[in-house]
Amino acid sequence: MNLLKERMDELLNDIVKDGPVGCACVVTQDGNELYKGMSGLADLATNKPITEETIYRIYSMTKVVTVTAALMLYERGKFLLTDPLEMYLPEFAQMQVFRTDGDNHIYQSPAKHSIQIKDLFTMTSGITYPGENNETEKLLAKKMEQLEKEGRELTTRGLSKLIASIPLAFDPGERWHYGMSHDVLGALIEAVSGQRLGDFFRKEIFNPLQMNDTSFRIREGKEEHVCTFYRIDNDGEKFADDTLDRHIQPDSLFDSGGGGLLSTLDDYSKFVQMLANGGELNGARIIGRKTIELMASDHLTDHNRHTFNWPHFKGYSYGLGVRVLVNPQAGGINGTIGEFGWPGMLGTWTLIDPKEKLSAVYMQQLLPSFEPVNHPKIRQVIYGTLE
């Protein structure tokens, strides 16, 4: 038994003791599979085990696919990163910003400048998720709840127009704020390519890489392979939850560039192996090596870097849609400067290291995800066994 298998098997078994009911991980380097392992179940009620065919909701790991697709169009000269967004999505012309005066009164005034396309990639656009933390979040939540009550579903471009109708949380470029920027980037891809987002993904990425089980919707005959999504209640008990599954139903109209994809361990591994290998896998060239270097560079500025401050990302900065390791010592990380990737809401995670030609994918389906604990442990086990 090799050292990586011994340590990773033990770690995955430990993870399922108090965390997800099942999980899986694969690690590859320079075309060689260093590790693949699974622990636990895909469904408690039926005692169904995790297998290679298990399909997961990867949520925000979709973002890495979206920024890759957008950069493929960038490589073809379809836009500049510094272009104003309204050149391609006119709804974003003359945006307003919510502001607060000295008496804490909230008011609106015009944005100091346009959203640049780069701001979508870097989450510095002023666009948020629905929530309660600021006026932009509150208004977005209100409008989306109203649509749900009316039984209306947005398309990718329809969501873009809804977001554009809401004042930004801050002037573009002012700070990093996690939000629906990559859903708008999906609308940009549709506008520039003339294709629906899911069609572009399939033709340009999934088919060439033979990612046959990755899609925005549950495909006919694949229903039994979808891993059950569990939550933990206040008593620490796990319960199945399908309330967020509307977007993956076969009749859904919405291709979410920010979080809509389903995938398998092996499928997503093909995608990240391609990125770790400089944009090519098994003869299929997807994106250029220099463009991947641009993606995995630190794109935050001295002005806004302090706002990328999630505690478990200490040592990282943010590139074009991905975390980027810039200071291993700050985070106690035994990894490579330039390693990049992103997680998903239910605890899925990926690591891409072009210098080592190394990639890893971890899958689970649990909320809360225990991301701040599990992901660093997986990373340090992987790097700790490299020769």
Give the SSE map.
Elements: H1 3-18, E1 22-29, E2 32-43, E3 48-49, E4 55-57, H2 62-75, E5 96-100, E6 106-110, H3 117-121, H4 135-149, H5 156-164, H6 181-193, H7 197-209, E7 230-232, E8 238-240, E9 262-264, H8 265-276, E10 280-281, E11 284-285, H9 289-295, E12 316-318, E13 323-325, H10 328-331, E14 340-341, E15 349-353, E16 358-363, E17 366-367, H11 371-384
Parallel strand pairs: 7-17
Antiparallel strand pairs: 1-2, 1-16, 2-3, 4-9, 5-6, 7-8, 10-11, 12-13, 13-14, 15-16
CATH class of the largest domain: Alpha Beta
In this structure, how is the largest beta sheet organized?
5 strands, antiparallel
Terminal CA distance: 15 Å
Quote the CATH topology of the largest domain: Beta-lactamase
Task: Give the CATH H-level superfamily of the largest domain.
Answer: DD-peptidase/beta-lactamase superfamily
Question: Strand fraction band?
Answer: 15-25%
- How many beta-strand elements? 17
CATH architecture annotation name of the largest domain? 3-Layer(aba) Sandwich
Task: Output the helix-strand order.
Answer: HEEEEHEEHHHHHEEEHEEHEEHEEEEH
Q: Helix proportion of residues, in percent? A: 25-40%
The total domain count is 2
The number of helical segments is 11
Q: Report mean pLDDT, rounded to a whole number.
A: 97
Radius of gyration: 20 Å
Low-confidence stretches: none
Structure write-up:
There is one protein chain. By secondary structure, this protein is α+β, with helices and mostly antiparallel strands. It has 2 domains: 3-64 and 196-384, Beta-lactamase (3-Layer(aba) Sandwich); 72-193, no CATH class. It is 32% helix and 18% strand. The chain has 11 helices and 17 strands. Strands 3-2-1-16-15 form a 5-stranded antiparallel β-sheet, sandwiched between helices. It has a 3-stranded mixed β-sheet with strand order 8-7-17, with no helix packed on it. Strands 12-13-14 form a 3-stranded antiparallel β-sheet, with no helix packed on it. Helix 1 (3-18) runs antiparallel to helix 11 (371-384), helix 2 (62-75) packs parallel to helix 6 and helix 5 crosses helix 6. The protein is globular. The chain starts with a helix and ends with a helix. The mean pLDDT is 97.
